[in-house]
Amino acid sequence: MATIKASSMLLPSLPSSSSSSSRRGIAKATLNLPKLGIPKHSKRDLVEQLKKRSSSVDYERIETRNTITPMEDEDYHAVSSRNHSAASSPSTTRLMSPSGSDPLVIAKLYEIMGAMADRVEMHKNIGEQRDNWNHLLLTSINGITLAAATMCGVAAASGGSGAAAANLLGLKLSSSMLYLAATGMLAVMNKIQPSQLAEEQRNAARLFKQLQNQIQTLLTIGNPTSSDVEEAIENVLALDKAYPLPLLGVMLEKYPSAVEPAVWWPQQRRKQAKGLGKKINENGWTKEMEDEMREIVGILQRNDKADYLRLGQKALKVHKSLAMAGPLLTGLACIGSAFVGNNNPWAAMVGVGCGALASVVNAMEHGGQVGMVFDMYRSNAGFFKLMEETIESNLNERNVWGRENGEILELKMALQLGRSPSELRNLATSSANRKAATEEFASKLF
């Protein structure tokens, strides 16, 4: 095999004086060539050697072009043109979608995925930064408050005239200034609630990852269309509105008058159907599955969402009380420390006692992250509201092929609630048989 390859490589460089002499020269070269062994080199070295050999053969072909017959010249040009067309053919470099989707739609979805990945990193970094705010501000304010209370106590214990009076005045002023600074810092901290801000950014990062996975699944097994692109853009903008990054102007209300579920998805566009009179057994849907999904929606509304709204209302009351108590106590301590001395024991009691109590309240509110707990309850209620709207939008769609596949929807709802599909069916059956509001919660996760 090596001798045949060598003869084929030597063929273009032989002079074409006559056909018989060429054949004799080729036969002689073939007989005299030794057997070639395969060199033990890496694949990269082998490719480079083949390139060098091919380039040397082309060079020899150019040098001996004047001695080639017209027939050989035509064959050479034919082979060269085929090689050039094969190398420059767009089918070797262009990637087409195996599912037949529009390449422009796929490119847009990949751009949206890139924007989502960037938002995930932004929300993650900003969430870590605001969590650091919570820890640093909590430590600083408590340190300032305790230092002011200590100075107030020392000033109340010193008293006297002359040098002692001068020291008393310095301690009083220092304590009052520290209390005043702690009051201002605590008011700002209670306004922005860093622990709640960090929880919002964590939720946003998780939800953007969820949307990113949905688009990746659509690109892998689905057939994306332009409507999928519009839906993805709407989801991104809705998340941007639900969990904004800036603080000034667009920050979420930290002390709302009423607790409402968090909403981070666009409104459903599907129109409500007036009824489904016949059984539907296509696209994974049956009449029994419709009844099951309606029972699950009822359980979510009566138990899960209502319970988290109730807990959120309690957390909001505690949140407001602690947020008002902290600056109020430090303000009273500031006033009390200013009147320390002159045989006024009540001023010392107010200055020291309110300062110590303010540190406890501050630790309970921000160390316990009450704002984060309130936002978590509100987000959980929003999670159950999203499940309700997802099920209802499918049930209200008259055309079964316009719905999500029934079996896939059932599996998704069951996994989100921490159940298996059989457990979800049993829950719906038991709720329907009792003909009353069941006490069991649909979710087993939280």
From TrEMBL:
Residues 1-28, 71-98 are annotated as: Disordered. Transmembrane segments: none annotated. Pfam families: Chloroplast_duf (PF14476). Residues 7-22, 78-91 have a biased composition (Low complexity). PANTHER family: F-BOX PROTEIN, F-BOX PROTEIN WITH A DOMAIN PROTEIN. This is F-box protein. The lineage of its organism: Eukaryota, Viridiplantae, Streptophyta, Embryophyta, Tracheophyta.
